[in-house]
Write a structure and sequence with these properties.
The chain has 19 helices and 20 strands. The longest helix has 20 residues. It has 2 domains: about 240 residues, P-loop containing nucleotide triphosphate hydrolases (Rossmann fold), CATH 3.40.50; about 280 residues, Rossmann fold (3-Layer(aba) Sandwich). It has about 550 residues and is α/β, with parallel strands linked by helices. The strands form 5 sheets. Strands 9, 12, 13, 14, 15, 16, 17 and 18 form an 8-stranded mixed β-sheet that branches.
């Protein structure tokens, strides 16, 4: 199994399907299709792929706004010149880098009329002319991805010569590679590229590759391929494709291009490093540290809603905080507390008047939910214990998930996987959706910050996000969350006063700040220095009194 940095083996198994293939960062929208249509969708969807490595680090600052856009590379060249091969070689040469999207021009062919379809099946339609491409849609989708928003890419069937109704959902790219014969033709597209590449290849080699590809992958005949090549492909290359090489920053050979690939990968790595953002430690230390449980938190956190500390609630927390509580009791009272929190959170959904007739024939003037779409998103896996309570309060609620884990050495959050409901994946629906974001606690706020930013990137308004959590650390990142996202509501069960800096080690004593370790006597473990501990562990922040690792206590 390929190792995923920062994820233990058990959680790696959750990320991999039985075949061992890692799922994409986000799932595409699916509809009911017959098997042959489904295979066609999968064939064409491979042209637009999401390749993940060690996850996506923060792409925003402490104010919640994007620090930088995705790095976009445009790769043009003749048909079958090796553009896709060059794109994948660049990804391979980059090694351990954030999420990469390979976006193909082939998906943006215009929807054809019946007359166009007749010409296409007779090999008389010019697919290589710029007018065959929906350039405005191409530029719009690329602009969304570059700006950090999600996009739904059309899927084109080469066998049917038609754009399909299904789309491919893409989100979360730090690097976008656009490839197509006319990738450098449109000025609006060129303005979106940070690096422009033209792949130069011998005409005979391109023709041989095209024949092999179209016969085996697209069901064409050799005669049809040759006729189309002579009638349309070669003239288009001379008139439209080859002239765009003057816009390229670098021209790469279509074969034996190892040196060029290494130079490009080095340049990209340097640009990505320049855009890196490290926030977690600043989030942990920016808020005041002198609050006590008796303070009034409203003046510090106006959108933080805490459950009334009734004897019943305090009794539940006493059971949950007790390290000796049996697991079955912990699960029971966790579900009970999550139900209370969900009931409180639902109060912030919009309601409208409704009159009903009671069983005795009287009219009752009440309320009903006035929400077009409502869903839940759990931050894996500590958000899982809150799902049962939410389902008890809102029947058949649609659930999604985000896998956000800390990078081993820096402690920075990494977005490793997302599976969001359809009402979030489509921007026109997300604007009218309410989302319950679930996580066990807010300490530094790094994971919460990233999850909220993901929802905002999809078009969910701040005021439609309700964060539900068991515990909030008053001296942690909650104040930064409130500053960056002032209209996001946070519903919690308790506010803990302490966020303690600690060190997560594997069979390693904590680092010593004041002095180096003294040689131990025989049989006595040697205390490691801070430098030695840093090499073997990572810095963490612990909420006190806290509830421990809630996900581990609930599931293990």
């Amino acid at each position: 199994m390929q190792n995923i940095e920062g994820v233990d083996k058990k959680k790696q198994a959750q990320l991999l399907d039985p075949s061992g293939a890692r799922p994409p960062l986000s799932r595409s929208i699916t509809t009911t299709l017959n098997p042959s249509a489904r295979s066609e969708v999968l064939l064409q969807a491979k042209k637009n792929t999401i390749l993940t490595s060690h996850g996506r680090p923060p792409w925003y600052g402490e104010d919640g706004k994007h620090l930088s856009e995705a790095f976009v590379i445009g790769i043009a060249g003749g048909s079958a010149s090796g553009k896709t091969h060059v794109a994948r070689c660049i990804v391979q040469a980059l090694g351990s880098i954030p999420t990469v999207v390979i976006l193909s021009q082939d998906s943006f062919y215009k929807r054809h009329s019946p007359e166009d379809l007749k010409l296409a099946f007779a090999n008389r339609y010019d697919f290589d002319h710029p007018d065959a491409i929906d350039m405005p849609l191409f530029a719009s989708c690329l602009a969304d991805l570059k700006a950090g928003r999600q996009s739904n890419i059309p899927i084109y069937s080469f066998k049917d010569h038609q754009r399909l109704d299904e789309t491919k959902y893409l989100y979360g790219a730090s690097i976008i590679i656009v490839e197509g014969i006319l990738a450098l033709h449109d000025p609006e597209l060129r303005s979106l590229y940070d690096l422009k590449i033209f792949v130069q290849c011998d005409s005979d080699l391109m023709l041989a590759r095209r024949i092999r590809r179209d016969v085996h992958e697209r069901g064409r005949s050799v005669e049809g391929v040759l006729e189309q090549y002579l009638r349309y492909v070669k003239p288009a290359y001379d008139n439209f494709v080859q002239p765009t090489s003057r816009y390229a920053d670098i021209i790469v050979p279509g074969s034996d291009n190892t040196v060029a690939i290494d130079l490009i990968a080095t340049h990209i790595r340097r640009k990505i490093d320049d855009r890196s953002s490290y926030l977690r430690e600043r989030l942990a230390k920016i808020a005041p540290r002198d609050l006590t449980p008796g303070d009034c938190y409203d003046q510090y956190f106006p959108n933080l809603i805490v459950l009334p500390q009734t004897p019943q609630v305090r009794g539940i927390f006493t059971i949950l905080r007790d390290r000796t509580t049996p697991r079955e009791d912990f699960i029971f009272f966790t579900d009970r507390l999550s139900t209370y929190l969900s009931e409180k959170a639902v109060e912030f959904l919009p309601f409208k008047p409704r009159t009903v007739t009671t069983p005795v024939g009287a009219a009752y003037h009440g309320k009903e939910l006035s929400v077009e779409h409502v869903c839940g998103v759990s931050i894996l896996r500590s958000g899982g214990p809150l799902e049962q309570g939410l389902r008890r309060v809102i029947q058949d609620i649609r659930m999604g998930s985000l896998l956000i884990q800390s990078e081993v050495h820096t402690g920075e959050p990494l977005l490793l996987h997302s599976m969001l409901p359809v009402c979030i994946r489509q921007r026109n629906l997300a604007q009218n959706s309410y989302v319950f974001l679930l996580d066990a606690q807010i300490g530094t706020g790094a994971a919460a910050f990233m999850a909220i930013r993901v929802l905002l990137d999809h078009g969910v308004p701040q005021e439609n996000i309700i964060f539900v959590t068991f515990i909030v650390a008053a001296c942690g990142g909650v104040r930064v969350l409130q500053r960056a996202f002032p209209r996001v509501r946070i519903v919690c069960g308790a506010v803990d006063p302490v966020l303690r800096e600690s060190w997560a080690l594997w069979d390693t004593p904590p680092p010593q700040e004041a002095k180096e370790s003294e040689p131990g006597t025989p049989g006595t473990p040697t205390v490691k220095t801070k430098q030695e501990a840093e090499a073997e562990g990572r810095k963490v922040w612990v909420v006190e009194p806290g509830m421990g690792h809630i996900g581990d206590r609930y599931y293990l």
